[in-house]
């Protein structure tokens, strides 16, 4: 029996899972993205507000690409179970609940008019999105003639244009747009692309002014580890509660949403009154830097090293005697000293991150985090290396090693179904990144390696590839030689020996 509204109405679902039925609430939010993260973060927050009568509305999701889970969401009337679990003040906490703040999911590739109809709804004032870092991108080939436009910003532009025309440019029908993508100043970036598309598509000056004056694009930073579901979780729910849930979602208890916005918005969206951890600020930059460099940086520097060591999850990594040490040294001795933020605050954040990584309920696979590692390394790890060198006049050895590990991790020679295939201990694994990056590494490793010079040549090619790093990394003193030495060790002696030696070393 599939989770559906009628099961709740007929009293067939355990009452413990239903704290708020959400019947009859109007749609107030249009949400681009129907992935695990949004459902465990934003929908959960609207649900929490609804419970307390603070929002009284639902979100309607839109599938931003041709493939997704619109069908599954609609089959379950937008309902899904959310399991939040972790350790809080030494106590094991597990909360299971059916979230009722999602009304449905529109697939604009099948029903574009449904999407445009939402733009005509005066009650839908908020737009949320999470389309991954790849989503907020300018596509000069996109067009209003595409129904729907291909890109996410294209869809937003078409949506806003339809709303503008429907309400004859009424100033009070502007939207509050709150993107959650983990890119720097996500709101500003989305706005910039929307304005560019308005120009490309020759839309009226009045529309452009309406967007500029009446639509607010907020910059935000989100933080919660969400890992989706496993078949085991689905099976457990079926056994315990008797229903099947194709949209089950799981995450940690910790959550933080930093939003750049004013008091008026804070009152309109009173997340804080529902006890949620939301920071309204006029500058989100320090929060973003802290999170991306410490938490995401720790993930990205650990993934290739830990994975090639034979470890599969973040929890195993942080608790491993060698890899755990590698990770902590990287965070406390290299990332934090490269940051210009309040020391006490950073240490507290880092300690919490290490605790969060140890969450016994979260199986966060290194191979999943490895997605798009080249661009992640550029934004999440490289700035710490550059800043550390500037401040200390020497290379941070763990982070430098992680670059060598990244090159070793991308040691594949065949591309199959858009993935580069490499081997760990004789077993194949898939490297997922943009196709140019995969081709680059495939060509890079397709050579005979006889001596030290060959490793140097490989590293030279990677470091000078400005498309990855936005700069020529050969200019960082000593980086090429050190990465080449580490890479040679990893390939010739294996990750285990190399990293064990590294964590014992004093200096580079
Ligand atoms: N999972 C987490 O712990 C977590 C935490 C914070 C932030 N995030 C961010 O969320 C993103 C992943 O989201 P998820 O965990 O919900 O994954 P997911 O795969 O469940 O969902 C991804 C969503 O992005 C959309 N999408 C993918 N590529 C797109 C493209 N090119 N254009 C437009 N839309 C596209 C998909 O349709 C889907 O709605 C990451 O980029 C990450 O930065 C994730
Ligand atoms: O989601 P990604 O792929 O951008 O990055 C992987 C993880 O670093 C990330 O999901 C973190 O767990 C998350 O950013 C915590 O808030």
From TrEMBL:
Xref: Pfam families: Mannitol_dh (PF01232), Mannitol_dh_C (PF08125)
Gene Ontology terms describing biological process: D-galacturonate catabolic process; mannitol catabolic process
Domain Mannitol dehydrogenase N-terminal: 28-268
Enzyme class per UniProt: oxidoreductase
Keyword NAD: yes
Keywords on record: NAD, Oxidoreductase
Superkingdom of the organism of origin: Bacteria
Catalytic activity: D-mannitol 1-phosphate + NAD(+) = beta-D-fructose 6-phosphate + NADH + H(+)
Entry's EC annotation: 1.1.1.58
Entries under InterPro entries matching the protein: 6-PGluconate_DH-like_C_sf (IPR008927), 6PGD_dom2 (IPR013328), Mannitol_DH_C (IPR013118), Mannitol_DH_N (IPR013131), NAD(P)-bd_dom_sf (IPR036291)
Gene Ontology CC: cytosol
UniProt-recorded Gene Ontology molecular function terms: mannitol-1-phosphate 5-dehydrogenase activity; tagaturonate reductase activity
Residue span, Mannitol dehydrogenase C-terminal domain: 283-490
NCBIfam families named among the record's database cross-references: PRK03643.1 (NF002969)
Protein name as catalogued: Altronate oxidoreductase
Organism for this UniProt entry: Koleobacter methoxysyntrophicus
């Amino acid at each position: 029996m599939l989770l559906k509204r009628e099961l709740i109405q007929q009293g067939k679902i355990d009452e413990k899972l239903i704290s708020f039925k959400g019947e009859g609430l109007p749609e107030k939010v249009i949400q681009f993205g129907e992935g695990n993260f949004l459902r465990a973060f934003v929908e959960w927050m609207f649900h929490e507000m609804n419970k307390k009568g603070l929002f009284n509305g639902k979100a309607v999701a839109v599938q931003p690409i041709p493939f997704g889970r619109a069908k599954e969401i609609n089959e379950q009337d937008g309902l899904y179970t959310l399991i939040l679990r972790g350790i809080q003040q030494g106590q094991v906490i597990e909360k299971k609940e059916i979230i009722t703040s999602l009304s449905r999911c529109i697939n604009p590739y099948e029903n574009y008019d449904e999407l445009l109809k939402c733009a005509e709804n005066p009650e839908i004032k908020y737009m949320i999105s999470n389309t991954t870092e790849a989503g907020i991108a300018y596509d000069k080939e996109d067009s209003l003639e595409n129904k729907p436009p291909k890109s996410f910003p294209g869809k937003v532009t078409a949506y806003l244009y339809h709303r503008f025309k429907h309400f004859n440019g009424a100033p009070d029908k502007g939207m509050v747009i709150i993107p959650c993508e983990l890119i720097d100043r996500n709101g500003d970036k989305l706005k910039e692309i929307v304005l560019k598309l308005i120009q490309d598509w020759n839309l009226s000056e009045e529309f452009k002014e309406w967007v500029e004056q009446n639509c607010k694009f907020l910059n935000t930073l989100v933080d919660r580890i969400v890992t989706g579901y496993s078949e085991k979780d689905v099976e457990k729910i079926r056994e315990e509660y008797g229903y099947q849930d194709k949209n089950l979602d799981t995450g940690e208890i910790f959550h933080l949403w930093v939003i750049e916005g004013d008091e008026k918005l804070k009152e309109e969206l009173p997340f804080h009154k529902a006890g949620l951890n939301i920071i309204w600020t006029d500058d989100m930059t320090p929060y973003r830097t802290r999170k991306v460099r410490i938490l995401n940086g720790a993930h990205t520097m650990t993934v290739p090293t830990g994975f090639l060591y034979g470890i599969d999850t973040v929890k195993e990594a942080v608790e491993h005697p060698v890899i755990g040490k590698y990770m902590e040294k990287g965070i406390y001795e290299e990332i934090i000293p490269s940051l210009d933020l309040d020391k006490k605050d950073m240490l507290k954040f880092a300690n919490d991150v290490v605790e969060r990584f140890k969450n016994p309920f979260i199986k966060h696979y290194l191979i999943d985090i490895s997605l798009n590692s080249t661009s992640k390394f550029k934004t999440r790890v490289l700035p710490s290396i550059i800043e550390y060198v500037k401040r200390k006049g020497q290379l941070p050895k763990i982070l430098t090693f992680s670059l060598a590990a990244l090159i070793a991790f991308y040691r594949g020679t065949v591309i199959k179904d858009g993935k580069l295939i490499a081997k760990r201990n004789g077993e194949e694994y898939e490297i997922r990144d943009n196709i140019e990056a995969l081709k680059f590494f495939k060509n890079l490793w397709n050579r005979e390696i006889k001596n030290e010079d060959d490793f140097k040549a490989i590293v030279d090619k990677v470091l000078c590839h400005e498309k990855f790093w936005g700069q020529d990394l050969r200019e960082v003193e000593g980086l090429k030689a050190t990465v080449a030495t580490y890479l040679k060790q990893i390939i010739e002696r294996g990750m285990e020996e190399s990293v064990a030696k590294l964590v014992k070393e004093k200096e580079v």
